[in-house]
Design a protein that fits this description.
single chain; alpha+beta; Penicillin-binding protein 2a (Domain 2); Beta-lactamase; 5-stranded mixed beta sheet; 5-stranded antiparallel beta sheet; elongated
């Protein structure tokens, strides 16, 4: 830009010639220059104001349009987005059918070391070993003075331990908040609940994940924040579960058994009210899995779900019921029980000699292997397999536990005629107590298939029909007769009309064949038999009791009295009143005054 000089030489000379003051020229030029600068500055300011006005106008238009758009849209909850995958520490409670807590969370702290910040590693190692006896002072000191910068010391500590560590005063020992899984009832329902442990861990939170049982099966539900902390409601009754465990534990010790299991199931809904497996464990301090030996000897092994056994004569009612359903026999049909029954090199015998014939009802009451096998021959292998499949014996149970798929039944590779006969009385096919409970429920509830479940149901869950109502009632009458005058006479509980069937199976050897002095004793019962509500399965592994001067291993002497005591204890807890007949007065004459 060309600027005009403040004192132009031509004008200065001319002004001197005319006798004027040359300084006035400079002053005039300065004034004109300032006015020009002022005008340009005004123009710039006005331009900026115009631009700002347009910008504010546009911004207000955008805001107004957005507000109008929101006002006319469907309301939605705002969602937050964040990078990474944060640790979810919250886990929902597990409760029983009445809302009583089975598993919950407890606020606690973890203990860790920021090793570079430690001021006295030797003292800290010494005092930590005194507070936590399982820690070794030498190992701690090696970690504190090595190349590590971070060390987990304890995943969980009590408030007392936290205070003791705080008193050490080392700034490198720090605490992190977290939640731990707590099972307030100890070992009660241990196999059902399973247990939990920590997954991903941070100093400020830790992920609690299920490792077994319903804790693992429902892990996604229990960890889902969308459920807003809603508890998982199970079908079991805590009071009934605790009473069942106590009775079964006492019975197992009394009968000198190495293990035991029981399943109490609602026959109309399939709900498992209690399920016990002994020996058990405390899920607050879950033991380690066995690395050698037989896993069935571990307390973690769930005998009710994972234990598949030849359950013996409890299967006979299925054979007789199918024979009646097919019209081959009725309850009074006389069946040939002359023995032994020869098939090739195999011989089928009865425990006692029951004579030449028995009625179909007495085949069940007296538990005749020969009579049951002859009925099975009339049914045939194909129809027997189909019927047992309709009761759920050909696949693992759908019960909501991660262990369920490991309880697949053991079926014969060739379902031959001899297999048909032995399976009819409970040999040659191995299944779990939960299988048996579901099958008995399906047969005795009026003939509708039910599946076992650990989830609380709102009403009957009847599936396909497996037998007619008439056959179901006949089967109930037969089972009641077994308790009235058969092999389960010790199972009678006054006021509850118990029906049931005993089963005693020789225990197989790992190398083949069967033990002569080891059995699996089972009692499958229903109560009340005239209007069934519950099925109870009790199984004892290798029971033995001395009675009448002999060692008794059969179910009638071992499993039956244990089941009777269990029914006597839990029936009132289930809200069932005993049906006691009132005696009418005799020899009394009513007279008026």
């Amino acid at each position: 830009m060309i600027r005009t000089p403040l004192r132009p030489l031509a004008r200065i000379l001319k002004a001197r010639e005319q006798g004027q003051n040359p300084d006035a020229i400079e002053a005039e030029n300065i004034r004109l220059r300032h006015e020009d600068d002022r005008d340009r500055a005004r123009l710039r300011a006005e331009g900026r104001l115009l631009v700002m006005g347009i910008a504010f106008f546009a911004a207000f238009m955008v805001v107004g349009l957005r507000m109008g758009s929101l006002a006319g849209s469907v309301p939605e909850e705002p969602t937050a987005q964040a990078s990474g995958s944060p640790i979810i520490g919250q886990r929902a409670d597990i409760v029983d059918r009445n809302g009583r807590v089975l598993a919950t969370n407890l606020d606690t702290h973890s203990l860790y070391a920021q090793i570079p910040d430690m001021v006295d590693p030797a003292k800290s190692a010494r005092e930590l070993a005194a507070i936590f006896p399982e820690l070794e002072e030498d190992e701690l000191l090696e970690d504190f003075t090595g190349s590590r910068r971070f060390l987990w010391i304890r995943r969980e500590i009590s408030p007392e331990q936290m205070q003791a560590v705080h008193d050490i005063g080392d700034p490198g020992l720090l605490f992190g908040p977290r939640e731990m899984r707590l099972y307030p009832n100890g070992s009660v329902a241990a196999h059902i609940l399973g247990g939990a442990t920590y997954g991903r861990e941070g100093v400020n939170s830790a992920e609690v994940i299920g490792v077994a049982g319903v804790e693992k099966f429902f892990d996604d539900f229990l960890r889902d924040p969308a459920n807003e902390g809603a508890p998982l409601e199970l079908s079991i009754d805590l009071t009934v579960q605790a009473a069942s465990e106590r009775v079964l534990q006492g019975g197992m010790m009394l009968m000198s058994a190495k293990g035991a299991s029981s399943v109490l199931m609602d026959v109309h809904t399939g709900e498992i009210i209690s399920m016990v497996s002994l020996p058990d464990f405390d899920p607050n301090d879950r033991p380690r899995v066995l690395t050698e030996g037989d896993q069935s000897d571990s307390p973690l092994f769930n005998r009710a779900v994972q234990g598949v056994y030849e359950l013996g004569s409890v299967f006979k009612i299925f054979t007789v019921a199918q024979g009646i359903e097919l019209g081959l026999i009725n309850a009074n049909t006389m069946v040939d029980t002359q023995g032994p029954l020869q098939w090739g090199r195999f011989r089928i015998r009865d425990f006692h000699d029951y004579g030449a014939t028995l009625s179909a009802t007495d085949v069940i009451v007296k538990s005749s292997n020969i009579g049951t096998a002859r009925i099975a021959l009339m049914i045939g292998a194909a129809r027997q397999r189909e019927f047992l499949g309709s009761l759920g014996f050909l696949e693992h149970t759908p019960v909501e536990m991660v262990e369920a798929p490991t309880g697949d039944p053991l079926l014969p590779s060739n379902w031959s005629e001899i297999s048909t006969m032995t399976i009819s009385y409970g040999h040659g096919l191995s299944s779990s107590p939960v299988h048996l409970a579901a099958a008995y429920s399906s047969l005795l509830n009026g003939g509708y298939r039910v599946e076992p479940t650990l989830e609380r149901q709102t009403g009957p869950q009847h599936g396909d029909r497996v037998v007619s109502e008439t056959v179901s009632a006949t089967a109930r009458d037969m089972l009641r007769a077994v308790v009235d005058r058969g092999t389960a006479s010790f199972g009678d509980v006054e006021g509850y009309a118990v029906g049931g069937k005993t089963g005693t199976a020789d225990k197989p050897r790992p190398t083949g064949g069967y033990y002569d002095d080891r059995t699996i004793a089972t009692f499958a019962s229903v109560f009340p038999a005239n209007d069934p509500r519950y099925v109870l399965i009790v199984t004892l592994d290798e029971p033995s009791v001395e009675a009448l001067g002999e060692q008794r291993r059969t179910a009638g002497w071992t499993a039956v009295p244990v089941a009777a005591e269990m029914i006597r204890r839990v029936a009132p807890l289930l809200g069932m009143r005993p049906d006691v007949e009132t005696l009418t007065p005799t020899g009394v004459t009513l007279t008026s005054n």
